[in-house]
Amino acid sequence: MIRPSLALVLLLLTGATLTARQHPLPRALDIQLGRIFDTSDYAVPRFGPARWRPDGTSYSTVEASTETPGASDIVRYDAATGARSVLVAGSRLIPGGQKTALTIDDYAWSADGRRLLVFTNTKKVWRLNTRGDYWVLQLESGTLEKLGGPAPESSLMFAKFSPDGTRVAYVRANNVYVERLSDHRITQLTADGSRTTINGTSDWVYEEELGLRDAFRWSPDGRRIAYWQFDTTGVGLFSLINNTDAIYPAVTTIPYPKAGTTNSAVRIGVVAADGGRTRWMKTPGDPRDTYLARMEWSDDRRLSIQQLNRLQNQNDYLIAEAKDGDVRRVFRDTSKAWVDLVEDVAWIEDGRAFLWLSERDGWQHVFRVPAPAPGVEETETGSGENATLVTKFDADVIEVAGLDEDGGWIYFVASPGNSTQRYLFRSRLDGSSAPERVTPDSQPGTHSYVVAPGGKLAFHTYSRFDVPPITDVVALPAHTALRPLTDTSALVKAVAPAVQPPVEFFQVGVDEGVTLDGWMLKPSHFDATKRYPVIVHVYGEPAGVTVTDRWGGSTMLFHRAVAEAGYIIVSVDNRGTPAPKGAAWRKVVYGTVGELSAKEQAAAVRALAARHAFMDTERIGVWGWSGGGSNTLNAMFRYPDVFQVGVSVAPVPDQKLYDTIYQERYMGVPQQNADGYRRGSPINFAEGLKGRLLLIHGTGDDNVHYQGTEMLINKLITLGKPFDVMVYPNRTHSIAEGTGTAAHVHRLIARYFLQHLPAGGR
């Protein structure tokens, strides 16, 4: 028999396990969660991965071979007619002496179309499979050869053809190599790669927060290679401990710069493709206190570089001379809060101008910026005054979708008047007229596009909250549907019982005259004369939104299943989330992320409860993941009169524990904003906890470290607060690794609410 004191300890450490024994899931909910997370019953039919071919009228994709069992063919489709032809049969991808074809994880063509590069046998590096083997198929001769010479298996990264297709460059063990295809002679371009010196790929924080993994570029003439180099010396090391795979722990150390600490020293160099000395670009400032966030070749002689300062409130667009490393600034974007990177700066008019996405006028807009004459640099004052507004409307450009430069148009996604939806618009490149909507008015919801070269065709995907995504080919600008690319009829039939009644989108007013967008789910047996428990799903940080009229996949279906058990599920986007409502909306939280979000989430619940008598204010729960986990803590600690039960998954209880690039972007450095970090961090308000709280974390989380949850546990113990914890050994931030893990964590969340926030109308 377990003594009471030991039972209490087990409840604190493994409360979720005891909860599972005490409160099993209703059978219908248990079965539905199994369908969502353990089966493919609700899987969305895939299209591709497909890529447009240079002609802008056809695309290629990978399909199971009809002639070679277990192999894949690379096929070409005419986008408009669907005419199909096999470009590379799977039988051609069987290495000599083997019986099975290569698995195609990715592929690339040489510019002349005579060679195919196949990426296979891939391994994960943090989040993506970016390390593996590369093979080259000579289409004329049929020769299939592996690259890398004596390199170990699955050790090459980011292999790319030279512009003339005669060589391939790649990264191995933090060094850059070039291999000549005619005789497989390998030239090592860098020799100092090590655990602390990284060439041609990135460190952890650049990968996570700036999306930089592939960190080298061929020059257009193929004579040189430009690459990033990271020196992680001095960056704090974080240790992940694996206690379960062997009888002794295995320790993985990661150079991980936490807010206010030392970053990697980063520089960009240019080296001849035949080898030789690297010429370093003379980018200004301390290489540990600036970010070289993007780099591309502008032409054979020059590089274009986006350089952010440490606070990320200034983005300088630089032109660097490859020959001598001299750098000049051609544009500067600034903000009193933060500026964002510009993905794929588009040079137009044969290099006489470029397009830049900026919030400089209060909205995120596209600007046309003339390129300064050689030797001319923008002045410190009035930088960018010659930029011309292209997208002339009072709304945000959410993303640039494509260009039709010959026709004089830019295509982009926006949603004036409804921040929950997404539509395609176009504007004249010279800014001479207001944007015009391209997506038909008859299709409310969320639309995404991959525009073909030339801007005449696009892959188009459309979904709604309760309607699975469908993909087709459309002709632009008429938006004429030419051919369906996916068939979702079986999925629509399968999911129909699970998405009733329809979602209800709403707007709710809170303090200061602010109106927030939200959605609400009800059970099919809803009775408006009764009062129901409410579960609020929150994210609430600058990295994402939850209130969108698009298919939400397994998360949405999870909420549907829990609602059917007898709950009202609500989600609201507070200010500070990246909704397309203008820069002021997004950046009002600068310096104190976490404070306003909790306040507005609580205000939204109060306002909704005043509007709807069926919301039981004595049964209000909240849950979220990552930033949503942090906001769950802030809601539970700061507003215990509103929220009685919370589930916080993988939270950041103390913002000083998260990485430099993300946290300092929105908060500044803690040395200069100690009070903001204090006010934004939920651990400092833990004494306010009154309700039931479940903490969930994976010990192998390299992103949001389990360390923070352990510190919060200690704080709650010191305060004498009861709480529950579930730890997933060696799982990462997604808590998805291992058979059954995703289903387990979602069953756990559902059980916790069922036990502590009783379901059903009263």
Which helices and strands appear, and what pairs or packs with what?
Layout: H1 4-22, H2 27-38, E1 50-52, E2 58-64, E3 72-78, E4 84-88, E5 106-109, E6 115-125, E7 128-138, E8 144-146, E9 156-161, E10 167-172, E11 175-180, E12 186-188, E13 197-199, H3 204-210, E14 216-218, E15 224-231, E16 237-242, E17 250-255, E18 265-272, E19 279-280, E20 290-297, E21 302-309, E22 314-321, E23 327-334, E24 346-348, E25 353-358, E26 365-370, E27 388-389, E28 397-404, E29 409-414, E30 423-428, E31 436-437, E32 446-451, E33 457-464, E34 467-475, E35 480-484, H4 489-495, E36 504-509, E37 515-521, E38 532-537, H5 553-564, E39 568-573, H6 583-587, H7 595-611, E40 615-625, H8 627-638, E41 645-649, H9 660-667, H10 674-680, E42 692-698, H11 706-719, E43 724-728, H12 741-756
Parallel strand pairs: 38-39, 38-40, 40-41, 41-42, 42-43
Antiparallel strand pairs: 1-2, 2-3, 3-4, 5-6, 6-7, 7-8, 9-10, 10-11, 11-12, 13-15, 14-15, 15-18, 16-17, 18-19, 20-21, 21-22, 22-23, 24-25, 25-26, 26-27, 28-29, 29-30, 30-31, 32-33, 33-34, 34-35, 36-37, 37-39
